[in-house]
Design brief:
This protein has about 525 residues and is of the alpha/beta class. It is about 35% helix and about 15% strand. The two termini are about 65 Å apart. It binds sulfopyruvate and magnesium ion.
Length: about 525
């Protein structure tokens, strides 16, 4: 079936045809020029490229006379193979060609010269399946059956994969005569534009392999476009034509917009991806000289600042839009692809105030993390997978944790129940209280400095921060105060118990451990 651009080629394929005829008449007409090689072969090549990209069925190109001699034919065949074209048909006339339905007695190419052109094409194809169809113009030129047969044999001898026997009679007589004499040495192609009254089955019975419906999409579209243009001009309105024409959304379908949508979800950063707020305002006094020029999150551990490892973990878990709250030596926090907000009062405020500096970023699913922690990646994955509005990772093996400094501040957690190793116990655990000074018998674990909020959890946290700002407690409050407050207010803060395997970096010994941890 004929097509003349990417759109018509798509329509041919979606209709169910097995192949496309890239008609020279139609392509030239669609370009607004005559079928006399006015469009150069490379201009045609561009059209073909769109057609090939738009479809997956074979395209047989109307190659006119091959755009010159054997050498031009070689160039064309090589390019067509590169562009994924299945086949070319060339006709044994002279360049520049004239359409077969114009005039009488068109001059034919020298038979041997044309056979050489076919051979050159076959010798230069880089795709072993590429086919060359030799088109016989003997009947068109009024030269009769014997000339047609002689040439057909010569072209088959030269390597043609098929012959196209063309006729402009209103009956199929010439074609049927040819079929009776032809020994089916190579398959026969016909173009029944003029003798369309003959039933296709008669061609089948006569041994014809392929019929080309050569220009009917172009002609149908000319009719439709003329009617539509005339009606809109006449009626000065779209109302009349609207019910009869393709909808814009059908055009989008034809253009494959659905595929683009899918690709966007695969390749574009998702708007729904979780964000993160990393609290990194504090110096880390116990690290002494190491934090003279940088906050502790920027201390190097095995060739990378701690914060870089953390952002790497967050990104690996699918977190986008990481906001780091800076304070001490803020200019030292200069990692790529993070956003920063500053808590310029870091020296006198607590973590809740730092978090509140990023309150605008606590939107949608959000991870909250301390900037100096190291943990197993799967803890983060588990937090992100959890079906909870607020969930905090709590170390159930807190008693086993080595804490050297006598004055170490630890984020103790009291939960609805202690950690249970029982496989069958999957009852959710909730947070009751978080504090640095819980009695040992109240402690069920230690917060590792990692939490995740759903969109609703983010709203709860924003509300709690605003409430703390309003009652004056925000300035000195910790994140422990924040989560305790939310739990006290009756909202569920879920606990994910984890078995150790995390650390924060408070002093020089921690740094050595951090190197080992990694
Ligand atoms: C074409 O479609 O361009 C053809 C077929 O070559 S015909 O117009 O019948 O010559
Ligand atoms: Mg043509």
């Amino acid at each position: 079936m004929e097509a003349h651009n990417g759109l018509s080629a798509k329509i041919v394929e979606e209709t169910g045809f097995k192949g496309i005829w890239a008609s020279g008449l139609s392509m030239s007409a669609a370009l607004g020029v005559r079928d006399n090689n006015e469009a150069s072969w490379t201009q045609i090549l561009e059209v073909l490229e769109f057609m090939a990209d738009a479809t997956s069925i074979p395209i047989l190109v109307d190659g006119d006379t091959g755009w010159g001699n054997f050498n031009n034919m070689r160039c064309a065949v090589t390019k067509f193979c590169q562009r994924g074209i299945a086949a070319i048909c060339i006709e044994d006339k002279l360049f520049p060609k004239t359409n077969s339905f114009i005039g009488e007695g068109q001059p034919l190419a020298d038979m041997n010269e044309f056979a050489g052109k076919i051979k050159a094409g076959k010798d230069s194809q880089t795709d072993p399946d590429f086919s060359i169809v030799a088109r016989l113009e003997a009947f068109i030129a009024g030269r009769g059956l014997n000339e047609a047969l002689d040439r057909a044999h010569a072209y088959a001898e030269a390597g043609a994969d098929a012959v196209l026997c063309h006729s402009k009679l209103a009956t199929a007589d010439e074609i049927m005569d040819f079929m009776r004499q032809w020994d089916n040495r190579v398959p026969v192609v016909i173009v029944p534009t003029k003798y369309y009254a003959t039933p296709t089955d008669e061609f089948r019975k006569a041994g014809v392999s392929l019929a080309i419906w050569a220009n009917h999409n172009l002609r149908a579209s000319i009719t439709a476009m003329r009617e539509t243009s005339a009606r809109i001009l006449r009626e000065e309105s779209l109302a009349g034509v609207e019910p009869n024409i393709t909808t814009v959304s059908e055009i989008f379908d034809l253009q494959g917009n659905a595929e683009l949508k899918q690709a966007e979800s695969r390749y574009l950063p998702s708007q729904d991806a979780p964000g993160a707020v990393v609290l990194a305002a504090s110096r880390g006094e116990a690290l002494g000289e190491l934090t003279a020029d940088r906050p502790k999150c920027m201390i190097d551990v095995r060739g990378q600042p701690l914060l870089r490892r953390l952002t790497g973990s967050l990104k690996a878990a699918g977190v986008r839009n990481i906001t780091v709250v800076r304070g001490y030596k803020k200019d030292a926090i200069n990692l790529p692809s993070i956003d920063v907000v500053d808590n310029d009062f870091f020296a006198t405020t607590g973590e809740a105030a730092s978090l509140a500096c990023a309150i605008e970023r606590i939107q949608g699913e959000t991870v909250i993390a301390y900037g100096d922690i190291l943990f197993r990646q799967y803890y983060l994955d588990q937090l992100l997978e959890a079906d909870a509005d607020i969930i905090v990772a709590v170390d159930a093996l807190w008693e086993a944790r080595q804490v050297r400094a006598a004055d170490a501040v630890r984020d103790f957690v009291q939960c609805s129940k202690p950690f249970s190793g029982d496989y069958l116990d999957d009852e959710p655990v909730t947070l009751q209280r978080m504090a640095n000074d819980l009695d040992a018998q109240q402690v069920h674990g230690e917060w590792i400095g990692l939490a995740r909020l759903s969109a609703k959890g983010a709203e709860l946290v924003r509300d709690a921060l605003e409430a703390m700002r309003a009652d004056g407690s925000l300035h000195t409050a910790s994140t422990l105060d924040l989560f305790s407050r939310i739990a006290d207010a009756g909202h569920q803060v879920r606990v994910l118990y984890v078995p150790g395997q995390w650390m924060d970096v408070d002093d020089a010994t921690d740094l050595i451990d951090a190197g080992r941890f990694l």
